[in-house]
Write a structure and sequence with these properties.
Layout (H helix, E strand, L loop, with lengths): L5 H12 L5 E3 L8 H4 L3 E2 L6 H21 L10 E5 L2 H14 L7 E4 H7 L9 E5 L3 E2 L2 H14 L3 E3 L4 E7 L2 E7 L2 E4 L3 E3 L5 H6 L8 E10 L9 E4 L2 E5 L5 E4 L4 E4 L2 H5 L5 H7 L3 E4 L2 H8 L11 H4 L9 H14 L8 E11 L6 E4 L6 E5 L5 H17 L25
Parallel strand pairs: 1-7, 3-13, 11-20, 16-17
Antiparallel strand pairs: 2-6, 3-5, 4-5, 8-9, 9-10, 12-15, 12-16, 12-18, 13-14, 14-15, 19-20
Helix pairs in contact: 1-6, 1-13, 3-13
Bound molecules: flavin-adenine dinucleotide.
The site of flavin-adenine dinucleotide (FAD) has 40 residues, from helix 1, helix 2, strand 12, strand 18 and helix 13.
Length: 418
């Protein structure tokens, strides 16, 4: 396994449960990049139809995960509401519900009065809301480390501060990985490198399309008098934390940093740009120079970019967080004057069709990719790991993996954005 985020640790756990020998190499610390920096939502609602079956599996797994890993992910099924500001929002959420009906998802539309009852304390009314009572949240800083500990208990080896420099092949198939501490012989390698997967693939002539978007979050001191469900509203989103504080973000204010890869992959991302235009802010900043200077080719016997940046720790966008706090306080005065305890950001890896790859890379037998989770990989993580482990083990996969295959980017399939 390459990468110790929610995907790498969940895959390692599922492989260890199957009795397969597994070594996980993480260049920094477990769950220190996206998986430890996200909002913590675990949901089916609003997902791309190609992810719904997997997310339903994930929701089932979250509920029993603490027992299986003998640890605590902080999971709570307290529900999630998407607030509708106007009839357009209602129509969009109803359209999703219609598409998702065949999966028997646990979600329904609420009237404005039902929203007011579910979320008392608001200064204004809402036209309605899409509500899923069984959706929930886990604690990002706890989940991946707890799953890694569970995998270790089942016999997996978890190595931190151990970057993988690249893969090795013999007779055309995987024979090992080269790490900064030496070589590990193996038959299969799963790359779950989050925002780094494209770079590692590129050194082996594999073109994995991936761009990065910066999302900022903050957490507050404990707030009294707020209901338990997580909420997405116009210009804010929030969810309760185990410590009684709230993680708060500005929904629809992610920053797409313009980098050399933006130009290299421009045409592939045109459909995504068109559909997500209103939710993105484009910036030309330091990251352009950083990525320009980052080598794209290297030999496996020398220091690689993975050893030079142990943990991606981008600057949070303070302005958009302050705006989220103001928007939230205006809608729910319980948040007014609440102390902000911490602000942070994470680089989200996004594919052109905004869904991940979970599957083999056909050009190199034994090489698998589980990456590109496009801002929604935390909640789906346990099932994504299970699916990846099924594919590596040659077992019947928990869902049909075809829509998530790597080849969709090169076999002439149209780029579909939902
Ligand atoms: C602000 C924000 C909010 C989000 N909110 C949600 C949410 O509410 N719900 C949700 O479902 N998702 C959410 N997401 C998305 C979610 O966090 C990600 O999709 C998910 O964590 C991806 O997990 P991962 O394991 O693929 O990647 P990561 O967590 O980024 O892990 C990849 C790991 O691989 C390691 N690595 C990379 N290259 C190498 C190498 N060569 N050798 C060794 N190690 C390597 C990295 O150090 C890193 O630890 C959010 C993301 C952000 C940033």
């Amino acid at each position: 396994m390459i990468g110790g985020g929610i995907i790498g640790t969940s895959t390692a756990f599922a492989l260890a449960e199957k009795g397969i020998d597994v070594v996980l190499c993480e260049k920094g610390e477990i769950g220190a990049e996206q998986s430890g920096r996200n909002w913590g939502w675990c949901r089916t609602q609003g997902r791309d139809p190609r992810e719904i079956a997997l997310s339903l599996e994930a929701m089932r797994m979250w509920r029993g995960l603490n027992g299986r890993i003998e640890g605590d992910t902080g999971f709570r099924a307290d529900g999630l509401v998407y607030l509708c500001n106007n009839e357009t929002d209602v129509a969009r959420n109803e359209a999703w519900l219609e598409q998702a009906r065949i999966y028997q998802v646990d979600a329904r539309m609420l009237s404005g009065a039902e929203v007011a009852k579910l979320l008392p304390g608001a200064t204004r009314s809402w036209v309605g809301g899409l509500y899923s009572p069984s959706a929930g949240r886990a604690e990002p800083q706890k989940a991946a480390p707890a799953i890694a500990t569970g995998a270790r208990r089942l016999g997996a080896t978890i190595l931190t501060n151990c970057a993988v420099r690249g893969i090795e092949t013999a007779a055309g198939r995987i024979s090992g990985v080269v790490t900064e501490r030496g070589r590990i012989a193996c038959d299969s390698v799963v790359l779950a490198g989050g925002a780094w997967s494209r770079l590692l693939c590129g050194n082996h002539d594999i073109d994995f399309p991936q761009l990065k978007v910066r999302g900022s979050v903050m957490r507050t001191a404990p707030v009294d008098g707020m209901p338990l469900p997580a909420v997405a509203g116009p210009g804010f989103s929030f969810r309760r934390r185990l410590d009684g504080g709230y993680s708060v973000a500005n929904r629809g204010a992610s920053i797409a940093e313009i980098v050399p890869d933006s130009f290299r992959q421009f045409f592939r991302y045109m459909p995504a740009l068109r559909s997500q235009w209103n939710d993105l802010r484009f910036r030309f900043g330091d990251r352009f120079a950083t990525e320009w200077r980052t080598p794209r080719r290297w030999h496996l016997d020398a220091v690689t970019p993975f050893e030079q940046v142990r943990i991606l720790d981008p600057e949070p966008d303070r302005k958009s967080l302050d705006q989220a706090h103001a928007n939230l306080s205006a809608a729910f005065p319980a948040f007014a004057g609440t102390k902000v305890v911490e602000r942070w950001a994470g680089l989200i890896d996004v594919t052109p069709d905004v869904i991940p790859v979970i599957g083999p890379i056909p050009a190199i037998p034994g090489f698998y990719l589980a990456s590109g989770f496009s801002g929604h990989g935390f909640g789906i993580g346990p099932a994504a790991g299970r699916l990846m482990a099924d594919l590596v083990a040659g077992d019947t996969p928990i869902i049909d993996p075809k829509p998530l295959r790597f080849e969709r980017f090169s076999d002439g399939s149209p780029t579909i954005i939902h």
